[in-house]
């Protein structure tokens, strides 16, 4: 064809204007002989330009035209330009689906299936699809017939004849007809098997709910029964062969491709269970073994193929079990487990493109709706629907979900599902990923009606709808609870008190009536406080329910709000500081210690909104604050009251940081380095106690002597205190040392030192709202029988003459914590030869240490305690690790400077670096020590009082598990892991400690 000057430019522009992205290639295709009779027809170009991808539509049309015989080709082209319904349908499909274009190129006559445009054709049902598949006699012919039916279905979808819900229902109906046809082919191939058994196919998942995707696994369950006079075993074998053949007919790839996978893994016992069971066997499993998620799956069960009576009997039999699932013993922990997102298996680079499983994805909506159905469907049959959208509408109608929330979720779900449909339709592949290619995004946007700037418009709409889902998917559990108690909109349907209590119980609240009272107190009225709390509570309730003790979280929030609710900065903090509300929820619902500390001074909640608020303050910073406060105070008691207030505030800061780091938040995952968590807590609490002792010492001295005590005085931290390893409930183990000032008699100096110690102890244990600090000096020479304080010279004389090996071992942890710095350094210099004897320990000393350890194991273990679970004295616990490390320090510290530290983990790492212990053994000991320390911290955080073993109360045990990173219902795994880790540590200890060469 000759092109006149300027023609190419004009055509190029015209094609660009009609949406072609490659006008040159399109011009060449339009000039092919196959389109000669229509190439100049303006109707064709307009119709191509209206498709999602004009270039793709034109290529597809050319392929069909070239595949047709000449006479048939002309019929196609004439009909195309004269019949708008066919033109819109055919070109619409070709512009949206490369896969259906491939099908039409292989079977060009199938375009005629799109010509019919009668009322009955608009919304076909199962019977219509069965007629369309009736001629199929083998897998290949079934695939061709299936694609032909799919072609008409897709045409109605892309032309807007059917909406999202209708399209999904038609896809499920086509799947139903296909399963029936496949089963018929399988029966024809094995008539003897068909005669032996009754077989019913029950659709699950999206097929069962009549909301199927274009390409999705079709989930099924098979139910079989023996026919009269047939042995049940043989009948089940026959039914299994028929079911397996039916699955292969649909799933296998042939010359005509595949249809979709038939997945029977939702059956009892999953892949490990028999493919076909009798109805009795199904019921026995569900009544005894089934998990909550299995009843959630059965929400959508629908008999679709095979024996209709047997299928109906199955659905009728399991229905009461489904709607009674919320009464099951483990429903609450199961729900808590199910509510957690499972995104670990999604690659990081794909999670932002995930339509189904990503944040704000389809599964968020589906899960929320199904859970509410399970909770409220036991008393309201209107919720018994397998369709997500119908169930969402019923939940709104019944007041179980706010109407505005339901409307927004409905709109978002329809949009996201429409995106999913168009993505899958393109190549007929099972995917939930939004493409990242510009051309694919353009086609997708245009297929959804976005024509001005399809890529930008699509991304904007997608993010907006995903944001709605992310914001609402958990709020819909809780917002109606507030409507039920706040009673602000009388005209709207709302939850009854009974329904609200049922929902709270299902979400883990042990005392729903009390929870409702708290909600009413927090949210009723028209005050600004009530309005802000009504906005916050739906989210807070979700965070509380995510914990082991939701009731405590809600009660704690009410107490804090009662104390601070009229304080403008508090309401502003919760409203505007994104992390503050979530941090508060985590802290209030994780146990007793942190809330108790907060309730004594609720204004400390401000810490949770400050980005730097959770960082521990340095010892120097705290000491400056404390000593300045003591200097301003009028007397010792008021001075130490301020000191203890600082300690309480900083303990709250430390516990809050520990809990938030262990639990994680929506924006920051849980801390994975548990050793770092333990070290931060140990250092923070040790520094805090040192500062507290220093403050009390300064106050005691000022009260009687002014600025100068008659004797130089130092406090030496011992045990975990000196090792910077204090846990929340630890006492402060110390030694006291003094050195008389010049001109002061020994008697006066001793009297002053003892008076100061007594006053310090009194001040730190005064009954106040702040937690006391107990000072324990029992590690001093001669123990409780010896003097409470000695001079440095007296310590030197005692250690030279009387010191026992256990005292040398105890001194490994000695470190000055308060008082005269020079005296503290002199004390450490004095005891250095005892801690790290030249040439190490002799054989007698090693034997004595081993004897003491063995005696401690046999005598000090509390009666009735499980030695495998006792964190301090039990097998592989703290004592085992610490004695092993300390023995290496005393043997080799003289030669290895790295071992001269008071910290267990630091010394263990130095021993490993010096090749005194293999790296694997060091790792085993370190892991056990960190775990045992975390358990002790967890017990204190949860119970509010110290303990060396796991709590017996189930809720407290669950809270310890959550702190340690275990999901609800996995307490047994936690105990198994603890025993396994400490058992390995004990094996290392026995080899390195009891078996070590002297």
Class based on secondary structure composition and strand pairing: mainly alpha
Major sheet characteristics: 5 strands, mixed
Q: Roughly what fraction of the amino acids lie in strands?
A: 5-15%
> What's the total helix number?
45
Radius of gyration: 38 Å
**Helix-residue proportion:** 55-70%
Shape: elongated
- The average pLDDT score comes to 91
| Low-confidence residue ranges | 1-7, 487-492
CA(first)-CA(last) distance: 101 Å
The strand count comes to 10
Describe this structure in words.
This protein has 998 residues and is mainly α. It is 61% helix and 5% strand. The protein has 45 helices and 10 strands. Strands 1, 2, 3, 4 and 5 form a 5-stranded mixed sheet that branches. Strands 6, 7, 8, 9 and 10 form a 5-stranded mixed sheet that branches. Helix 4 (54-67) runs parallel beside helix 7 (98-106), helix 5 (70-82) packs across helix 6 (84-96) and helix 32 runs antiparallel to helix 33. Mean pLDDT is 91; it is low at 1-7 and 487-492.
In short:
This protein has 998 residues and is mostly helical.
Write the layout of secondary structure elements.
Elements: H1 7-17, H2 23-30, H3 42-49, H4 54-67, H5 70-82, H6 84-96, H7 98-106, H8 119-122, H9 126-133, H10 139-158, H11 164-189, H12 191-196, E1 197-203, H13 205-208, E2 218-226, H14 232-251, E3 262-263, E4 276-277, H15 279-288, H16 292-298, E5 302-306, H17 308-323, H18 331-339, H19 362-376, H20 388-397, H21 403-427, H22 438-447, H23 454-472, H24 475-486, H25 497-506, H26 512-523, H27 528-545, H28 550-564, H29 568-576, H30 578-588, H31 593-599, H32 619-632, H33 636-663, H34 674-705, E6 711-717, H35 719-722, E7 732-740, H36 746-764, E8 775-776, E9 789-791, H37 792-801, H38 805-810, E10 815-819, H39 821-835, H40 843-859, H41 878-892, H42 904-913, H43 919-943, H44 954-963, H45 971-994
Parallel strand pairs: 2-3, 2-4, 7-8, 7-9
Antiparallel strand pairs: 1-2, 1-5, 6-7, 6-10
Helix pairs in contact: 1-2, 2-4, 4-5, 4-6, 4-7, 5-6, 6-10, 9-11, 10-11, 11-14, 15-17, 19-20, 20-21, 21-23, 22-23, 24-25, 24-26, 24-27, 25-26, 26-28, 27-28, 27-30, 28-30, 29-30, 31-33, 32-33, 32-34, 33-34, 34-36, 41-42, 41-45, 42-43, 43-44, 43-45
């Amino acid at each position: 064809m000759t092109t006149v000057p300027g023609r190419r430019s004009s055509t190029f522009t015209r094609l660009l204007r009609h949406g072609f992205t490659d006008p040159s290639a399109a011009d060449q295709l339009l000039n092919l002989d196959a389109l000669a009779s229509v190439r100049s027809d303006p109707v064709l170009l307009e119709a191509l330009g209206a498709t999602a991808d004009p270039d793709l539509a034109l290529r597809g049309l050319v392929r069909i035209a070239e595949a047709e015989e000449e006479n048939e080709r002309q019929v196609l082209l004439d009909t195309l330009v004269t019949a708008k319904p066919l033109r819109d349908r055919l070109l619409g499909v070709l512009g949206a689906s490369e896969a259906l274009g491939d099908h039409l190129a292989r079977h060009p006559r199938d375009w005629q299936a799109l010509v019919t445009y009668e009322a009955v054709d608009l919304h076909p049902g199962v019977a219509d699809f069965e007629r369309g598949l009736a001629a199929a006699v083998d897998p290949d012919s079934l695939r061709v017939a299936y694609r032909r039916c799919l072609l008409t279905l897709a045409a109605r979808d892309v032309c807007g004849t059917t909406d999202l819900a209708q399209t999904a229902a038609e896809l499920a109906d086509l799947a139903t007809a296909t399963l029936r046809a496949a089963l018929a082919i399988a029966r024809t191939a094995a008539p003897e098997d068909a005669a032996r058994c009754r077989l019913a196919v029950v659709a699950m998942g999206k097929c069962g709910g009549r909301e199927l995707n274009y390409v999705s696994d079709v989930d099924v369950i098979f139910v079989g029964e023996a026919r009269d006079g047939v042995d049940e075993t043989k009948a089940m074998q026959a039914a299994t062969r028929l079911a397996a053949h039916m699955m292969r007919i649909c799933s296998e790839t042939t010359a005509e491709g595949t249809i979709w996978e038939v997945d029977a893994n939702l059956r009892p016992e999953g892949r490990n269970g028999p493919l076909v069971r009798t109805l009795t066997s199904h019921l026995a499993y569900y009544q005894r073994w089934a998990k909550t998620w299995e009843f959630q799956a059965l929400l959508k069960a629908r008999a679709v193929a095979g024996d209709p009576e047997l299928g109906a009997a199955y659905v009728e039999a399991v229905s009461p079990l489904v709607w009674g699932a919320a009464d099951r013993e483990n429903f609450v922990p199961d729900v808590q487990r199910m509510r957690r997102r499972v995104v670990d298996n999604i690659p990081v680079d794909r999670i932002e493109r995930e339509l189904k499983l990503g944040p704000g994805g389809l599964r968020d909506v589906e899960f929320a709706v199904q859970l509410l159905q399970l909770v409220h469907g036991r008393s309201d049959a209107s919720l018994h629907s397998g369709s997500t959208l119908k169930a969402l509408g019923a939940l709104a109608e019944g007041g179980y979900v706010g109407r505005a929330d339901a409307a927004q979720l409905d709109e978002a779900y329809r949009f996201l599902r429409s995106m999913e449909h168009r993505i899958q339709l393109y190549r007929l592949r099972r995917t939930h990923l939004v493409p990242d290619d510009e051309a694919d995004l353009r086609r997708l946007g245009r297929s959804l009606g976005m024509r001005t700037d399809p890529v930008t418009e699509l991304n904007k709409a997608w993010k907006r709808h995903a944001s709605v889902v992310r914001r609402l998917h958990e709020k819909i559990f809780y917002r109606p609870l507030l409507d039920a108690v706040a009673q602000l909109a009388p005209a709207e349907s709302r939850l009854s008190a009974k329904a609200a209590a049922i929902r709270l119980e299902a979400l883990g609240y042990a005392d729903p009536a009390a929870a409702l009272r708290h909600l009413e107190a927090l949210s009723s009225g028209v005050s600004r406080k009530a309005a802000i709390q009504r906005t916050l509570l739906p989210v807070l309730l979700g965070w509380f329910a995510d914990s082991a003790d939701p009731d405590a979280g809600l009660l704690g929030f009410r107490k804090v709000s009662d104390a601070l609710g009229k304080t403008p900065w508090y309401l502003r903090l919760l409203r505007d500081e994104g992390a503050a509300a979530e941090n508060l929820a985590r802290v209030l619902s994780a146990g007793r210690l942190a809330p108790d500390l907060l309730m004594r001074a609720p204004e400390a909640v401000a810490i949770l909104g400050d980005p730097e608020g959770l960082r521990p303050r340095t010892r120097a910073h705290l000491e400056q604050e404390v000593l300045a406060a003591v200097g301003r105070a009028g007397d010792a008691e008021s001075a130490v009251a301020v000191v203890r207030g600082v300690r309480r505030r900083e303990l709250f800061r430390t516990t809050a940081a520990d809990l938030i780091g262990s639990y994680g938040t929506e924006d920051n995952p849980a801390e994975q380095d548990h050793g770092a968590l333990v070290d931060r807590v140990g250092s923070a609490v040790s520094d805090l106690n040192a500062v507290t002792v220093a403050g009390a010492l300064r106050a005691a001295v000022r009260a009687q002597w002014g600025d100068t005590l008659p004797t130089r005085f130092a406090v030496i931290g011992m045990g975990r205190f000196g090792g910077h390893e204090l846990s929340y409930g630890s006492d402060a183990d110390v030694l006291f040392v003094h050195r008389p000032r010049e001109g002061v008699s020994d008697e006066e100096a001793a009297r002053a030192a003892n008076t100061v110690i007594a006053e310090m102890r009194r001040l730190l244990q005064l009954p106040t709202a702040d937690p006391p600090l107990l000072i324990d000096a029992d590690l001093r020479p001669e123990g409780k029988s010896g003097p409470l304080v000695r001079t440095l010279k007296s310590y030197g004389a005692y250690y030279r003459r009387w010191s026992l090996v256990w005292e040398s071992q105890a001194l490994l942890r000695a470190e000055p914590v308060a008082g005269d710095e020079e005296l503290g350094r002199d004390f450490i210099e004095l005891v250095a030869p005892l801690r790290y004897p030249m040439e190490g320990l002799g054989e007698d000393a090693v034997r004595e240490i081993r004897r003491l350890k063995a005696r401690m194991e046999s005598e000090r273990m509390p009666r009735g305690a499980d030695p495998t679970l006792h964190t301090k004295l039990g097998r592989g616990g703290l004592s085992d690790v610490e004695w092993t490390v300390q023995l290496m320090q005393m043997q080799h510290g003289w030669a290895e400077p790295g071992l001269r530290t008071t910290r267990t983990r630091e010394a263990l790492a130095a021993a490993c670096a010096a090749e005194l212990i293999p790296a694997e053994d060091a790792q085993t000991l370190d892991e056990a020590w960190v775990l045992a320390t975390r358990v002790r911290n967890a017990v204190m955080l949860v119970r509010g009082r110290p303990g060396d073993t796991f709590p017996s109360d189930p809720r407290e045990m669950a809270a310890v598990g959550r702190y340690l990173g275990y999901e609800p219902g996995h307490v047994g795994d936690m105990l198994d892991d603890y025993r396994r880790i400490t058992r390995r540590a004990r094996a290392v200890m026995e080899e390195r400690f009891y078996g070590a060469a002297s």
